[in-house]
Amino acid sequence: MPVPEQKEAVIAIRPRSLLAEVGNKSLNTQLMMRCGLRVPKSWAIPFWLGEEYFLDRSKALDLLGRELDRFRSTEVLYAVRSSAEGEDESKRSFAGQSLSVINVPGRDLTEAVEKVWLSLKERGLERYSSAPKRMGVLIQVMVPPDISGVSFSCDPLSGRRVAVVEAVRGEGSKLVQEGITPWRYEVTADMVKLSGGEELDRKLLDQVVQTTFKLRRR
Question: Torsion over CA of 11, 12, 13 and 19, rounded to 10 degrees?
Answer without folding.
Answer: -20
